[in-house]
Amino acid sequence: MSFRNYKEKIDEGDTVILYLCNNFFAIEVKPEIKNKKGELIENVYQTTFGALKVRNLIGSNYGSKVELSKGWGHILQPTPELWSLTLPHRTQIIYTPDISMILLQLDLVPGCVVVEAGTGSGSLTHALIRRVRPHGHVYTFDFHDHRAKVAQEEFQEHGLADFVTARHRDVLAEGFGDDLKEKADAVFLDLPKPWTGVPHAVAAIKNDGGRFCSFSPCIEQVQRTCLTLEQQGFQDISTMEVLQSEIKVSRKTVPVRDLSFLKHKKGTVQLVQVPRPTQSGPPIDLAADTLTQVSYDATVACDEDRSEANKPIIDRIPRANILNVATRISACMAADDVPKRMDLTPIEAPNTLAL
Ligand SMILES: C[S@@+](CC[C@H](N)C(=O)[O-])C[C@H]1O[C@@H](n2cnc3c(N)ncnc32)[C@H](O)[C@@H]1O
């Protein structure tokens, strides 16, 4: 229930996030769980810093420090961002840098109706729900029966069931259903053949217009989707890749030359020979004194590298993050009105900076 509202104390049944040495773990606050034999046993969560008795969390404050048998951690309220880092993976998922761009490009605000396929592990769905609630609604579809069922159970456990409907359906074959005709402000597709879903998106988007976005790993998928979007009367089609780089700023002590001798008259400065400490070759002339000063060292680290070691195997498969976004201005645009412009070039962004 803790996804729904921020609150002070942890209740039984909440999903909480254990923060431990820059790692996050989702824990369901259940005092007892069933073992493999189906017997009820005490719920003890094992970490690299020892065991956590889950029962002890009930009644303690969010944000508080908790004792483990060999250390301590902090208990945080769950957010869609933390959930994306900790959720049980049933599929590949979309991560926060792409999610933030998707929410922006879909132009979502509280009250919007958004249609999503496929649901997968529900990573994006949690962010969509937070953006459109309390009066909006997310309709999410997956043709994998078990995934659709587990996602609906998760939304229920997280207290989000009022804002989302998870349905089991092959949307490419059957569309989004008659009840969603001309109801959606936005449609999002994370499917192998998104271009097949474009006509269904047209049927679902409101008559006065809406936004479409698809997420594809291959440029061929992007090309086919762009062509279909153009044929179906979408305007403003653009393709982008979100590349995030993190700048780490740290304190570092470095030697600097004392150049004060430059202030003296010509011919009065005494130079001494100082051998280079790390390189071979002839010694260089330096002023007699060297100073040290604190400077700041900035390095750019790719986000992928940072988390690679901790990712589950399914997620280490490289996945380019290409988004197609487009606006549908009118559902009944004449073929002659279709603009001829189409830009298939992904936006280029540097993944290293010269500092
Ligand atoms: C990559 S996952 C989606 C991950 C999701 N965006 C997330 O962030 O967790 C793709 C999902 O689409 C579903 N899918 C594929 N084709 C589909 C179709 N025609 N209709 C409905 N769902 C489909 C798959 O079962 C899979 O669960």
Helix/strand class: alpha+beta
Shape: flat
- CATH fold type of the domain at 84-242 and 319-337: Rossmann fold
CATH class of the domain at 84-242 and 319-337: Alpha Beta
Described by strand count, sense and barrel closure, the largest sheet is:
7 strands, mixed
Given as residue ranges, the uncertain stretches (5+ residues, pLDDT < 50) are 283-306, 312-319, 330-355
The CATH superfamily of the domain at 84-242 and 319-337 appears as: Vaccinia Virus protein VP39
User: What distance separates the N and C termini?
Assistant: 46 Å
The percent range for helix content is 10-25%
User: From the 3D coordinates, which CATH architecture of the domain at 84-242 and 319-337 would you assign?
Assistant: 3-Layer(aba) Sandwich
What is the number of helices?
Answer: 9
Keywords: Methyltransferase, Nucleus, S-adenosyl-L-methionine, Transferase, tRNA processing
Catalytic activity: an adenosine in mRNA + S-adenosyl-L-methionine = an N(1)-methyladenosine in mRNA + S-adenosyl-L-homocysteine + H(+)
Protein name: tRNA (adenine(58)-N(1))-methyltransferase
GO cellular component, one term: tRNA (m1A) methyltransferase complex
